[in-house]
Amino acid sequence: QKGAYKHFMLKEILEQPEALRNTMRGRIRLGGASPPEIRFGGLEPLMERLASARRLVFCACGTSWHAALVGEYLIEQLAGVNVEVEYASEFRYRNPILARTDGCEDIVVVISQSGETADTLAAAQFARKKGILAIGICNVVGSSIARETDAGIYLHAGPEIGVASTKAFTAQITCLAMLALKLGRYRGAISEEQFEEHVTALLSLPAKMAEIFAQSDKIYEMSRVYRYAHNFLYLGRGYNFPVALEGALKLKEISYIHAEGYAAAEMKHGPIALIDRFMPVVVIAPTSDATYEKLRSNIQEVLARGGSVIAITESDNDDLDAECEYVIKIPKVADFLSPILAVVPLQLLSYHIADMRGCNVDQPRNLAKSVTVE
Ligand code: F6R
């Protein structure tokens, strides 16, 4: 039930702090006499195989594919395990090279909110047919992917009714961050102290996310200003490059405004030609990002061409206030957790724009919640 909310999508955006708590509940042990720990019931017997895998191959579609891209950065950075991300639809049609050697195997990880996406399910079935271990990360309990994988993790984000995925995305990244930390600790890539610090940061996310909602009025006002734009560009780097893709997808699917997400440095290889005063550019620029100064130069390049910039940065950063049209501030958090917060204002921006344009927010045209056909 959507209760007092106008749309399921809005309800689900605002439910995210609770969804994240539920994703982490019972899986994190911190404090007390024993060392800190993250546990995933279904994966415990597989930890040695996961930690020594040659590659983890993530297969997914749409928003889940964006979460997988964040997962690639997380697991490579924090655990030192090689990850590749594939569109599920491409993976199974191109005879991928998959290793089965003990101690040096490829493991397929399929990610899906519904657990019913035809291509993602088929990617898991394809892997298993080839003797490859397939792990599922899904939200819907008892879904086809949950049943047809060797092991898995449930998101526990609660039912997602709005067609545009919101809380499942942040729950997916939370799960992947937990998996990255667990693998990192298991492999000795992070020390116990670092692990404890990162887990503490993870646990602080729900409260920090709730702080973003305090800026709802500003995001609403900004949405009013940009609601008639025909095109949007979203830029981000590192952990937030997939967030740029996700912000653009959210806007396209529910407001029908054309939007493109880019790795910011790619802007000068083409999209910069599009920039004029009618082109809003959303730049995800947290100072925790190692390339923050380069993102600032990108902002200058957009401004020099008359584009208007909406920046997402941390609350203690005033660098961008004078030059950007709008600056949305998110609480400060370690770089690897910033996607979970940075996507929230982008979800709200697309929600408000779609609603102001009179679009059917929860059931956008031509889209279904579960894509069970190819
Ligand atoms: C975007 C969206 C879709 C889904 C995609 C995969 O908001 O909802 O792009 O993310 O169809 O769906 P799942 O995660 O159910 O496999």
From TrEMBL:
Subcellular localization, as worded in the UniProt entry: Cytoplasm
Q: Which UniProt keywords apply?
A: Aminotransferase, Cytoplasm, Glutamine amidotransferase, Repeat, Transferase
The entry's protein name is Glutamine--fructose-6-phosphate aminotransferase [isomerizing]
Source organism (scientific name) = Diacronema lutheri
GO BP terms in the entry? amino sugar biosynthetic process; fructose 6-phosphate metabolic process; protein N-linked glycosylation; UDP-N-acetylglucosamine metabolic process
Q: Which reaction does it catalyse?
A: D-fructose 6-phosphate + L-glutamine = D-glucosamine 6-phosphate + L-glutamate
Q: Which GO MF terms does the UniProt record name? A: carbohydrate derivative binding; glutamine-fructose-6-phosphate transaminase (isomerizing) activity
Subcellular location, principal: cytoplasm
